[in-house]
Design goal:
Order of helices and strands: HHHHEEH
CATH topology: Arc Repressor Mutant, subunit A
Structural class: mainly alpha
Distance between the termini: 29 Å
Shape: globular
CATH class: Mainly Alpha
Largest sheet: 2 strands, antiparallel
Number of strands: 2
Helix content: 40-55%
Strand order of the largest sheet: 1-2
CATH architecture: Orthogonal Bundle
Length: about 100
């Protein structure tokens, strides 16, 4: 589907993912640290691992639920599978490797 900008929805999503990764990668922010933590885990992180990381760094536990809300932009970078494993989306992981 083409938007008013001339981009297809997929292209628009990919551009937004790249913008977000550019903002978050190596940023000294909560989301930057969560991104690096999840990225460094080859197979993703379990719910407990992610919750522990958030709690051990004294971040609000709201971050855990925020990552999965469909109305949040985290959906362009993170995904959670049916086993509760949080991963970096394949396209985002490939893009991070180019940085």
């Amino acid at each position: 589907m083409e938007s008013d900008s001339g981009y297809t929805t997929d292209e628009s999503d990919e551009n937004r993912m790249k913008q977000l990764v550019d903002l978050w990668w190596n940023a000294n922010t909560i989301i930057g640290k969560i991104l690096k933590f999840v990225y460094e885990s080859q197979d993703g992180v379990s719910e407990n691992e992610l919750k522990n990381f958030i709690e051990n760094n004294n971040y609000s536990t709201a971050w855990f639920s925020d990552l999965y809300q469909s109305n949040k932009e985290y959906k362009y970078v993170f995904e959670r599978n049916s086993n509760g494993i949080t991963k970096i989306k394949k396209e985002a992981k490939q893009y991070i490797k180019t940085l």
